[in-house]
Amino acid sequence: MSQPGAKYLNEKSLKALELLRSHPYPVDNFHTSKRYAVLVALIANNDGDLEVILTVRSTLLRTGAGDSACPGGKMDLDDVDLIATAKREAWEEVRLPPSESQLLTISAPILSRQMQLVTPIVVYCPNMTTADISSLCPNPGEVDAIFTTPLEYFLNPQPELHSFIEMQWTHSLHRIHSFEGCGASNHVIREQELTSKNDRRPTSSLASSRKIDRTNVGWIVYGMTANILLEVGKIAYQREPAFQMYAQGQITDVGRNAEWFNDSFRPRSSL
């Protein structure tokens, strides 16, 4: 692996890390014991810019098959906090050692489409660069590929590679972003294992569209993962995306979202 040190980062990236470190943790008023966390792991590329480590979920999974995502999962009873959850999941999914990542900040919790409350844990891996991506190992059954993409790309993508849809979700209109061409130049593909016909699980048409060979064209990052990376990018580079991020009237206040969640999922009296 490359040697640790700030010499691998340019001035813009050093400033971005400082802005992330100084960003205050969000107030978390969501009332639920079921918690999930993802690791937004940043590493330097050859130009000293920051890239994020992402995975392609196995096409054998029951939910999110074939989707691009940050490593992560559900908090276990043995996890001391959500930071431990995110680091443990990254170790299990891609063999990123917990000791290799340094905490920068915690981003605001976000609801997945399955109504899971997900907290992004933002870290920097000083001992790694994008040239070291081959040292990571996709976990069979969970991850089909690992790739990296510049964090700043999500703020200023090529127009033809960015699209969005709008939909009514939870308690307001939401804009769902999609970014194509991610990871084409830097990725690790898991060697496909032979599986019997009975072992194959059905996947959605959306997941099926992601099963094509993307090693030359890259993968699609969309939905919750895209939103997380947009929010982290805004903090790191202190600017808005080159496009309108939110739908008109979209509720983005974490406190209001927590109120809606707590009211919608609070235990109901049987009387």
From TrEMBL:
Species this chain originates from: Dissophora globulifera
Signal sequence annotation: none
Occurrences of domain Nudix hydrolase (ranges): 33-172
Matches recorded under InterPro entries: CoAse, NUDIX_hydrolase-like_dom_sf, NUDIX_hydrolase_dom
UniProt GO MF annotations: coenzyme A diphosphatase activity
GO BP: any one term: coenzyme A catabolic process
Source domain of life: Eukaryota
Name of protein: Nudix hydrolase domain-containing protein
Xref: SUPFAM superfamilies: Nudix (SSF55811)
Record field: transmembrane: none
Coiled coil segments of this chain: none
